[in-house]
Amino acid sequence: MASAKEIQDRIRGIKDTRKITRAMYMISSIKMQKARQKLADTEPYFFALQDQISSILYHFPEIDSRYFENGTNRNPNGKKAIVVMSSDKGMAGAYNHNIMKAAEDYVKDFEPGSYEFYCIGELGRQYLKFRGFPIADFEFTATNPSVHRARVIMEILVNKYHDGELSEIDVIYTRSVNSMKSVIEYHPLLPLRPHEFIKNDASEDAQYKSLTRDMNYSVEGDQDAVSNLYSGDFFIWPNPHHVLHQLVYNYVAGYIYGTLVEATASEENARMSAMKSATDNAEKMLAELSTQYNRVRQAAITQEITEIAAGAQALKRAKKKAVR
Q1: For the chain, how far is it from start to end, CA to CA, in angstroms?
Q2: What is the pLDDT of residues 74-107, one digit of tens each?
Q3: What is the pTM of this model?
Q4: CATH code (residue 49)
C-alpha cells in the first residue's frame, strides 16, 4: 500500500488537473455559444442568396451554367475534391477519430487518383497524410472561423472547378444536433442540384398563391397582379447568367462558412463532454484516494498508539523490577 505522502501527492496532482479540466469546459462552452451566435447572425443573408438562386432557376429554366450538374460546359473528368473539416488540437474525445473514419469510409470505393482531400484542421491533415491518402496543398486552420477565411477557401476551390481541375466538390463535417449528439454530414457542394432549388421555390410559389387565394387578395387596378408575380416577366441586369455566377460564388462561400462554424461548435461540444467526463473521473478518484488516505492515516495512528501503549507497559514492568 502507498504511503500517506504518496497519496497526498496524487491527490494534489489530481486537484490541479481538475482545475484545468473545469477551466477548459468553461472556455469551450463560451466558444460554442459564440460560434452559434455567429451562425445565427449570418444565416439570414445566406438564406436570401439561396432564395435568389432558386428564383432565377425557376424563372429562367433554360439557363446553362457549369456550376450546375446539368451544365454543358463543365468538365466531368476532373478530380473529386473532398473537403474534410477536423480540428487543430486534441482533447475533444472521439471528435477527430469519427470524422477521419467517415472520410476513409467515404473514399474506400473510389478509384486511386480520382479524388483528393482538402483538409481544414491540422489533426485531420496529419492523419490522412500519415495513412497515405492524396492530400492537396491546402492548409487552413479550423479555429475561430471567419467569413474572410470562407471566401478564400471558396475562391481556391471554385477557381479549380471553373478551370476543370475539379469535377466535384464534396464536404464532410460534423454538425451538432444538440448538447448530447453530433452527426457526420456528407454534402455535395459543386455542382449544385438545380432541381433542389427549383423545388423549394415552386413550393413557396404554391404556398403564396394558396394564401392569396384564401384571403381573396386583389390589387386595385390590376386583377392579374398576383399571377404576374410568378409569370417570369421581370428583368435582370446585366443578364441572368452573370448574376447567377456571382450568387453561386457567394452561396458556396456562405455554405463553407456555415460548415466551419458548425464544425467548430461540434468540436467545442465534444471537448465540453470530454472535459466534463475528465472532471467527473477526477472527483471519483479524489473520493477513492481520500478514503485510502484516511485508512492509511488511521492505520498509522493506530500503530503509534500501539507502540506508545507497548512502551508504557515495558516501562511499567521495568519499574516493578527495579522496586523489587
Answers
A1: 46
A2: 677 788 889 998 888 877 778 888 888 888 888 8
A3: 0.73
A4: 3.40.1380.10
